[in-house]
Amino acid sequence: GYATVDHHRALRQGVPEVIFGEGKSGEQIAGIAEEMVRAGTNVLVTRIDAHKAAIVGHRVPSFRYAPLARTGSVELAPPPKRPCAPVAVVTAGTSDNEVAEEAAETLSALGLEPLRIYDIGVAGIHRLLHRVEDLRRASAAIVCAGMEGALPSVVGGMVATPVIAVPTAVGYGTALSGFTALFAMLTSCASGVSVVNIGNGFGAAMAVHRMMPKASQAIEPPKTAG
Amino acid sequence: GYATVDHHRALRQGVPEVIFGEGKSGEQIAGIAEEMVRAGTNVLVTRIDAHKAAIVGHRVPSFRYAPLARTGSVELAPPPKRPCAPVAVVTAGTSDNEVAEEAAETLSALGLEPLRIYDIGVAGIHRLLHRVEDLRRASAAIVCAGMEGALPSVVGGMVATPVIAVPTAVGYGTALSGFTALFAMLTSCASGVSVVNIGNGFGAAMAVHRMMPKASQAIEPPKTAG
Amino acid sequence: GYATVDHHRALRQGVPEVIFGEGKSGEQIAGIAEEMVRAGTNVLVTRIDAHKAAIVGHRVPSFRYAPLARTGSVELAPPPKRPCAPVAVVTAGTSDNEVAEEAAETLSALGLEPLRIYDIGVAGIHRLLHRVEDLRRASAAIVCAGMEGALPSVVGGMVATPVIAVPTAVGYGTALSGFTALFAMLTSCASGVSVVNIGNGFGAAMAVHRMMPKASQAIEPPKTAG
Amino acid sequence: GYATVDHHRALRQGVPEVIFGEGKSGEQIAGIAEEMVRAGTNVLVTRIDAHKAAIVGHRVPSFRYAPLARTGSVELAPPPKRPCAPVAVVTAGTSDNEVAEEAAETLSALGLEPLRIYDIGVAGIHRLLHRVEDLRRASAAIVCAGMEGALPSVVGGMVATPVIAVPTAVGYGTALSGFTALFAMLTSCASGVSVVNIGNGFGAAMAVHRMMPKASQAIEPPKTAG
Amino acid sequence: GYATVDHHRALRQGVPEVIFGEGKSGEQIAGIAEEMVRAGTNVLVTRIDAHKAAIVGHRVPSFRYAPLARTGSVELAPPPKRPCAPVAVVTAGTSDNEVAEEAAETLSALGLEPLRIYDIGVAGIHRLLHRVEDLRRASAAIVCAGMEGALPSVVGGMVATPVIAVPTAVGYGTALSGFTALFAMLTSCASGVSVVNIGNGFGAAMAVHRMMPKASQAIEPPKTAG
Amino acid sequence: GYATVDHHRALRQGVPEVIFGEGKSGEQIAGIAEEMVRAGTNVLVTRIDAHKAAIVGHRVPSFRYAPLARTGSVELAPPPKRPCAPVAVVTAGTSDNEVAEEAAETLSALGLEPLRIYDIGVAGIHRLLHRVEDLRRASAAIVCAGMEGALPSVVGGMVATPVIAVPTAVGYGTALSGFTALFAMLTSCASGVSVVNIGNGFGAAMAVHRMMPKASQAIEPPKTAG
Amino acid sequence: GYATVDHHRALRQGVPEVIFGEGKSGEQIAGIAEEMVRAGTNVLVTRIDAHKAAIVGHRVPSFRYAPLARTGSVELAPPPKRPCAPVAVVTAGTSDNEVAEEAAETLSALGLEPLRIYDIGVAGIHRLLHRVEDLRRASAAIVCAGMEGALPSVVGGMVATPVIAVPTAVGYGTALSGFTALFAMLTSCASGVSVVNIGNGFGAAMAVHRMMPKASQAIEPPKTAG
Amino acid sequence: GYATVDHHRALRQGVPEVIFGEGKSGEQIAGIAEEMVRAGTNVLVTRIDAHKAAIVGHRVPSFRYAPLARTGSVELAPPPKRPCAPVAVVTAGTSDNEVAEEAAETLSALGLEPLRIYDIGVAGIHRLLHRVEDLRRASAAIVCAGMEGALPSVVGGMVATPVIAVPTAVGYGTALSGFTALFAMLTSCASGVSVVNIGNGFGAAMAVHRMMPKASQAIEPPKTAG
Ligand SMILES: Nc1ncnc2c1ncn2[C@@H]1O[C@H](COP(=O)(O)O)[C@@H](O)[C@H]1O
Ligand SMILES: Nc1ncnc2c1ncn2[C@@H]1O[C@H](COP(=O)(O)O)[C@@H](O)[C@H]1O
Ligand SMILES: Nc1ncnc2c1ncn2[C@@H]1O[C@H](COP(=O)(O)O)[C@@H](O)[C@H]1O
Ligand SMILES: Nc1ncnc2c1ncn2[C@@H]1O[C@H](COP(=O)(O)O)[C@@H](O)[C@H]1O
Ligand SMILES: [Mg+2]
Ligand SMILES: [Mg+2]
Ligand SMILES: [Mg+2]
Ligand SMILES: [Mg+2]
Ligand SMILES: [Mg+2]
Ligand SMILES: [Mg+2]
Ligand SMILES: [Mg+2]
Ligand SMILES: [Mg+2]
Hints:
Eight copies of one chain form a homooctamer.
Chain A: H1 9-13, E1 19-20, H2 26-38, E2 43-46, H3 50-59, E3 63-66, E4 71-74, E5 87-91, H4 97-109, E6 114-117, H5 126-129, H6 132-137, E7 141-145, H7 151-158, E8 163-167, H8 179-186, E9 194-195, H9 201-211
Parallel strand pairs in A: 1-2, 5-6, 5-7, 7-8, 8-9
Antiparallel strand pairs in A: 2-4, 3-4
């Protein structure tokens, strides 16, 4: 067949395989989603446009589409809430919000609570200074920025929270479709900032998922040595 | 003067400013280290060659140089041990070990325990299969690879542990001084792998530092919502 | 005229000139195909879209179009079967299947039998482990992968079969339209993997064609020294 | 001959031709400098290493070499002081100071007063906040930064002063020998920041020279319309 | 909300936040514009296409669209005229005029007077020689060129006026969508030419804004040292 | 330890692990070679310079160094001869011979016979025409070329032999350290040419190894379907 | 106005300004063409699509459009014939013919006679060998090739005729939109091949124009020293 | 052997094979030179450093080395003088002179007379205006420039002479080791400028060689049609 679904993934990683919508037809996505629903797992599709989403929606009951995030999902059962503080999802400018929404939707599907802090980039840095306490209290911060991608450096220099930087393709010319922000974030003078692919809000949320305690760990002590 | 030391950093981030050794003279590094020692903080210098290290060693008592890692340090007091399992430091091949040592030295300076797992790359994948349990039990895995940089994808697909991928410059021609490994890691089909700059073992360790409970948090419950 | 058909090619290479469909009009393709049919040779066209295929179909009888592979063909006589085991055609993900189909269609036109093994990429490596025997028994393996392009490395490390790696443009951002997979495959730590252009399923099949015994060689001993 | 000195330049631009030291031998530089001294103009050489400077020093009396800036000069007469406030020369880190010194030396040769503000990059942004008043009062700010090159964005967002951004080659891997900082500065979200070539402290000072009133204009009103 | 308008900007920089139209919907632009109009500030939007402009025009009274420049504006009160000579806006060829118009529209919004000098590129250099006096008398020259981007070098070598070079995407093949012009301008042999992003007429005008005396400074003496 | 030798490889691939000499010290190489000799396998090291080779030679008896090829080897027993015609090793120019020698040395270590055909590039194409019969009779052709890398296209168009193209770094400027030859070979209009990394003579020989009958297969019929 | 037509060009260069159609509206092109017709000169427009050509055709009488070449022209008087042999215009494959037609149309407009030799690329080199005499007798050869761009090397190695190489964007993946052919041609092992921009058939014809005797020089002796 | 000398080349191209010195040892160069001397042809070696030249000088009598040009030659008989005006060899700056000397030495070896015009770049354009008559009278102009590479555009716009542009690696940062000049020259707005590889003075001279009448053609009429 055209696909070999990885049904073990929820066991290995605490979350089922997520369907990458690009380069697949609406029919193929629907077919994979149906196979997962039959197996009793929730479904998440990323990078799916409105046209393909309509095709899936016709075949898969209770498929919900989030147009700004360009994600689709089937929630057979709500994900168990995770025992930790909200995860900040930050943008430098309004044009970065789409990528941030992909992260926020994925966090929700993982039982993590997103806290949206949008349009506080470094051209008017007082906007960031007003939100420092929110960032300090967050479990982690997913920071989305295009153009020169400076925001994660400044956030990472201010707080000790885990920072996942997400470059976006916002800008033109030397913004290089997000590569300048990507390279800037990787060579950030603030240390301990880690980075995901351009526009990969999904991957940033998954990285936070790996760090956070599992639902069942709520009452367990932190994983310690020995 | 030639430098404005950031003396607040230990407060903000739980670790003092780390000195970037490239592009500074041995004298400048020694001067900054002396100022930090006077202020009573431990010192860590990265990317410092043997020649500069000798200069610093003459001026700064108890300066210790790690030649493979190319780091130098002054430990006025040992860092408090962190309440978590060891951090795996993995390499694909022997040629990646230098970058891994920079990560391991930094982890030690942060009170985290490195677990070295070297030379287990995908050309002979049974070597990796033998170490899966170690990876599963680790607090996090720092995975260093050059050439095609495939190891973090395979590790990330096998275990739910946080994975920080570190590309190295090992290889020639299309290895592109580490850029191929970097781009491969960023576009990894294993989700939730986050990435740092080429050869940045230090940054990978700092990213783990942000995720792990602080020494003082050992007896506190995990940071929860609300 | 607009074309100088290379009528000697079947003699030199055991297969007639294959028409490259890009940058030619439907009319030009039809004209060249007609000239080849008149000369009594089978026709294969690659990288031809549905629109041009319809134009050719109107002028050239028994022209068959394969939409997923984007190839068209006229089979005046079936190609003689080649005396060797099937050729594995492997993909990392469903989105790589189009390129794989171009390879599979070309193999069939050359008298070689394709064995399709789809969607077994390294994010869930047990899927690959289940198919190792098939890969070991194959005459050769054409391995198609986008994103980080790690699958040929892992396959090449496991079996001694000839491996032709085909990068695809699947992925976004640092996938670089297939260049990351291409470079990764070229700098693979598994040795003896050779590589063709991004999306060039046709070329991979032709490379296998060069290695395999000719139909008429079935009863001849292998070409030996002296 | 090997050179055609542009003796009109002081007339056209208020400053004589400046000798670019790279790719010229010490003898060629000395020859050009001698010709200029004979013509009665001050001499400035940029990007000249210590070895060539020694050669020039032997032939040209009162040639002064500034090793950190890598400039050399002959001052037949001091340049007339310009009627404006000092020009801030700012660095993100100590490793950027060499480029800044090239700018500062050039400013002095043009009759402009440099105000050095070094090592105040965005990883510890309070260091910048302490110097905002100095930046506001400056005639212009030349801001030198490597790595992610974020400092000019933050400075440009805080003050209305003319900002000339100078990328430096500080950093490794994705710092791309200064190209990441260059591209970041060009796509800065702070508007009206203009940029010069990587490491071009000289050019930044010359750009300020074009903007500032000439010595002879001190008592003239600003150049107005009509 | 989706935006955090920077209402302090007019205070800090003498001009309100300018809305970057790319990557925002017409509705989002209209919402931000309305908020600014309510706050009593003039509005300027850049890189806005005719379709979005129509949406904004329906919601925001007296919104004016300049189609060649692709800017839109609301002028609650005319900007105070600045006490300086006109600013030359120069193009190498007719195809560069769009970028020049963005600069000219922005200058007007800032109270500066543009002087358009179009299509005088170096392939017919007598066209430039005829306009040297205009360039010499201008407060500054914004020079827009695509292809090999040579015009700012020639202008910068002829006059002492501040020169802001704006690369455009005019040309094909090795013009590299404006990167060749950008790199040529940055490595110009004429010194003191500073550069903005490809197609960034807006940024060039803002850089001139930073250099020119403010309206209220007309009768003040130039800002001097001490 | 610093290495995890893959002792299974000879079983899986018919040839033991080959040591990549770059990025390893002479001592590390010697240590790995000693471990392999103890295990009774032949040793091959590639990309090892004369200095490291001397270190290994002191510790490992009967270590032989080939300076042009930059390979070293220990032959405990001669490799069994393979039942096939010689493998042509071709260069475009004398400057490509080093890479060709790496291929030839590796072929010999694999029991395959190299046939050297050097300096017959396309600037004087009659030199190639004189050797067509040799190329036609070869089991495979490894074709090494730098600069524009045209030779594999011409060879591939003339003969039906398997062609492995090896780009070299010969040339300057737009030769791009071998990338132009690499890209040219990948986009060759001669079909079925497959390619390895720049300068990777070793990999080309290994690719031929995968295609050729094993020594033990000499009297077996070709591997057929079913 | 939007244009400053260079009316001196025919005097300086023996041919009037040629209008670059990209980035100009149909109306602008028509306006410039009308101004040139009024001045009594022939008109040539390059890179003009069918839509703009229709607009110009409505306003400018006897405007002729060549759709394959994408050129338009007004011939008030036929150009005087040049006293030299025809100029060969060669393509590697049918897909390169469009660029060749731009060259051929421009040659005709310059009074030079094109000799079309199409689809004789190196994958079937006997096609080229059949045309060597034509190439030897030509005044110059304009050789257009995409993919690996090898044809000019082979032609340049066979004949002493001036060779102008024109890379085309034919191919995919590593063909890099013509950059691989461009770089290959520039680093050609055949010496004395000079190169123009990707797809610049116009420029190749103009380069030939510069080399060839002018119409009025027919009876003059060649331009000799002294 | 290591080389297959192309002894037919003087017949095909009017000049013997020229030895490319890079990537060959001094011994290999001497061996090839000796073989050519034995065959009675003059020898030219390019890109040969002083060290290799000394080795060749010891073995080959009357070998002459030109250190600035980095060429070496053996002149058994002076080349016959060509019946045409001198060839201008122009540089933008003194740092470009080395490349120009390679062109000049090659011209001399071909029987063509170089006319050196050095250091007249566009930063002081009056220097060029003074030499326009020399350029107009030359048979061809070889124009060498680094940095932004603007000089060939300006020369090509002023005179109708054939212009061969040679980019040089002069400059830093965005000069990109000559690629910016190369791309600028290829996308020059002056039409009919053709280009050779970065630093390829030799190739430029060879391109002129192809255009110029042969010595034996002095009394023949120009090669005409039919
Ligand atoms: N055409 C333009 N090019 C570059 N930057 C711009 C342009 N127009 C507006 N900007 C800047 O981009 C920032 C807008 O970011 P955002 O919050 O996404 O609207 C503003 O602070 C402006 O200074
Ligand atoms: N937006 C995304 N970006 C990157 N990777 C993704 C994204 N969405 C899903 N994936 C991963 O891509 C893989 C899907 O590959 P495929 O078999 O082609 O569907 C899954 O294993 C996911 O972990
Ligand atoms: N197809 C072409 N490719 C490159 N340059 C061209 C082309 N057609 C015309 N030109 C040149 O481009 C210049 C036109 O610039 P513009 O003033 O924008 O029309 C002219 O001087 C022509 O020499
Ligand atoms: N999909 C393909 N990818 C690469 N090369 C191809 C492809 N299809 C056909 N070709 C080759 O391209 C050449 C066609 O060139 P042309 O004369 O333009 O048709 C043929 O000789 C084929 O060997
Ligand atoms: Mg905003
Ligand atoms: Mg190993
Ligand atoms: Mg899948
Ligand atoms: Mg510092
Ligand atoms: Mg024009
Ligand atoms: Mg040779
Ligand atoms: Mg063809
Ligand atoms: Mg000079």
